[in-house]
Amino acid sequence: MQIRSRSRSAFTLIELLVVIAIIAILIALLVPAVQKVREAANRTQCTNNLKQIGIACHMHHDNFMTFPSGGTGWWIPPTYLAPGLPATGSQQQGGWAFQILPFIEQTAVWKGSKGGSIAQCQINAIGATIPTYFCPSRREPQAINAGAWYGPGGTYAHGMWDYGGANLDNTGAIAYGYIGRRIAEITDGTSTTFLAGDARKDMSYLGQMQNDDNEGYTSGWDHDTLRHTSIAPMPDMRLGSGWGEYRFGSSHMGGFNMLFCDGGIRLITYSIDLNSFRALGTISYNDVPTYVIN
User: Fold this and answer.
1) How many domains does the chain have?
2) How far apart are CA 42 and CA 54, in angstroms?
């Protein structure tokens, strides 16, 4: 009589549990590695964004003999002399991030995106979302819609951004008023003076109106576009307060990116000494600070 072998048609419960446990271990090992690679790519993109901003500021200096100016108040929208004709130099009362748009390949936005009136050009510029102005570790390009407390009347988009210039008035490279700083005024040296960097946000209110994230990138002398170096930087958190406390900071691991006036980018750690941080944020502190780089 021929004896037939009995084939197995399924895993036992114990074997399934072992397989599941192995998969779970592999996932636990792989996820942090994937997150680390993704964050490295995001930080590189953020560094490139700030590099482009730095180049744009130097091109502005080449054209107008100064860095872009900081303006005098958050309530003043970009200045247009006529539809499609933004003011330049000391005539421009909009914020510094608006002034450098032509030098980051955003000339159409700078001109008001073919708006048929000065008001419509302002609305178009205010509402634009500029990819270079967003850190991918924090968010995709984003705008908020709200009634007009800044700019022309009506309800329309306000394009946000994730960076800030060094001032308000500690005093840094982005000058108060409508005449920007000349490189010759930076007596501390361009390689030891901040120009701009990652601005801290309250992550629980991201995409909503925050005290320092509501007018958007076009506003002038305001915490939306400028940050203090006289207060310690801190990482992004879910604060629930509706503001980033006017600090520099980021969603990066281990620190935040800062753009120096010579165009260099460095990752600064949160353990930086506050006196050194303040020195780096001024154009004439008469000190060469030490700072912590990750």
Assistant:
1) 1
2) 18
